[in-house]
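Entry:
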Amino acid sequence: MSSQPFIPVRLVEAGAPSRQIFTPALQANGEPVWQPGDAEVHTWDINNIGWAHGDVAARQDSPGVRGRVYLTSSRVVLVATGFARGSRYSGYDPTDVIVGAIATKVSQRRAEKASANTYLVGQMRLPWLQAVAFAKPDAAKALRGEVRLMTQHRTAFGDLELATLLLRHSDPSHTENFVNWASHFVRGDRQGWASTSEGDSAALARVPVAADVRTDPGKLPVILYPGARIPSADTASQGLLSSRSFT
């Protein structure tokens, strides 16, 4: 199976065509273009989009955005505006991690003009989701509302490395609800899929609800999802619901 470095956050123009394997396509109003695998959609407000390769301390964040997270039966999609205000968002392209600063050293007015009809988006397909880390409602203020969606991808050198899609719920009380729905959809996508082993299927059935997950003080609780795939065009469809989007 072919694979490529997975960069889960991009800049896209509404109406631009996309196969939606790695990057969601957007309607003119900025909402995702839905696929057959998106059989059920839940959505929440967010105020941060970010991503990281390797250690999450090396994260690239866009705080203060105005956005939504869409959780469906086959993927997680983030869509936001407001990222160009003021100065310094770096855009991303499939062939180059950092293409350039869309709003660096330009005025607020020029930044807004440059970003017209352009959205900051993120996507994690459920076949790739290996683990989710999340902040409890009573977490430290700096972490409240945070969700980290983790997978392993292959670097340009072929090595396995953690790749994380980050989001921050505007209302931190929604975080555990999001995680519980994510667990529900991952189970629905993987259990019964031909290549999911009996062991992984049994382990998925034991995935706990978010409120029951405990961890050491100062650390985020983590839920693991057995049977995750490395992001690639070949693995995007590896699930009962995910396969419907690519048939």
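The CA atoms of residues 51 and 186 lie 21 Å apart.
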